[in-house]
Amino acid sequence: MTSVHNATRDATEATGQRLDLHHVGIVVADLDDAVTRYAPLGFVAAERIDLPEQAVRVAVFVAGPGVVELIQPTDLEGPIARYLEKRGEGMHHVAYRVDDLPATLDRLAAAGVRLIDNVPRRGLHGSRIAFLHPESCAGVLTELVEVSDG
Ligand code: CO
Hints:
The chain is an alpha+beta fold. It contains 4 helices and 8 strands, in the order αβαβββαβαβββ. Cobalt (II) ion binds next to strand 1 and strand 5.
């Protein structure tokens, strides 16, 4: 029987493309309160990052090889604020790490995957990110990340 780990490695090898789970994004109403509520799970020492251009503040928890991002909107007119107002707190997106984001977007577009971002935008820590439409990902907003250090 193939383990989950081996199945993942097989998928990456089969396509020649890296596809690592990178982070999960969770929208919260109040970052400090959410960090406190996550403490009993064992999450400590969250890094705090302000992203004014995306109108959010983020707390990042390390969770094994991936991270959990708690995302608080800082602008009532921003897309995260609208999401929070409409749906309340909860899972917002899943992100996968890829090696070459522009090439990956070209490949996905050619395969008929609906893209939100046709070209990468700036993410945390100098990374480049792009979102795929939930319609193409079983209802889940999906982010691709190309980290800056390769
Ligand atoms: Co994200």
